[in-house]
Amino acid sequence: MKIYFCGSIRGGRDDVDLYQRIVKKLQSYGTVLTEHVSSSELSERGEDASTESDKAIHDRDVEWLQQSDVVIAEVTQPSLGVGYELGRALDMKKKIFCLFRPSSGRRLSAMIRGADDGNMFVVIDYREDEVESILEDFFNRLRT
Fold first, then answer.
1. How many CA atoms, within 13 angstroms, populate the side-chain half-sphere of residue 130?
2. Among 10, 28, 90, 131, which one is most buried in terms of CB atoms within 10 A?
3. What is the pTM of this model?
4. Quick count: other Cβ atoms within 10 Å of Cβ 113?
5. If you write DSSP's letter for every residue of the chain in order, what string do you get?
6. Given this model, what pLDDT does residue 51 score?
7. What is the pLDDT of residues 62-87, one digit of tens each?
8. Which class for 35: exposed (0-12), middle (13-18), buried (19 or more C-beta within 10 A)?
């Protein structure tokens, strides 16, 4: 299974430790095409510190989205990029699973929460200590 993981990069890296836990769990279910999102060496500047241009990053990530079987997004940290990825994934008819932590004090965008159809686009509120078990439940349901 090919998994596309979405998490904030240029929108803020406060949740990078959580992203690492999520990616580690996702790797037990398949290949995480975007595991670099969980790298603690990736700053809010994103990959622009490297030689890759924004266009190259966009095109690569859209190609990965097209290849993916499922999209998992941690959506607590607001991110224009994650919102864009989710919109593209929805258009591609990908199965999308969003994770949001209400304890952050933030309110999730209505465009994300409102897209939840209980089937192809699912949003789950969770506590950080539940993340692995919630992912396990999601992938167990996906297999049935």
1. 12
2. 131
3. 0.94
4. 14
5. -EEEEE--STT--TTHHHHHHHHHHHTTTSEETTGGGG-TT--TTGGGGSS--HHHHHHHHHHHHHH-SEEEEE-SS--HHHHHHHHHHHHTT-EEEEEE-GGGS----HHHHTT--SSSEEEEE--GGGHHHHHHHHHHHHH-
6. 57
7. 999 999 999 999 999 999 999 999 99
8. middle
Q: Which amino acid, one-letter code, is at 138?
A: F
Q: What is the mean pLDDT of residues 103-112?
A: 96
Please name the amino acid found at residue 82. V
Looking at residue 40, its amino acid is: S
Q: Enter the tokens of residue 66.
A: 């097209």
* Predicted pLDDT at 43: 79
35 token code pair: 């595991």
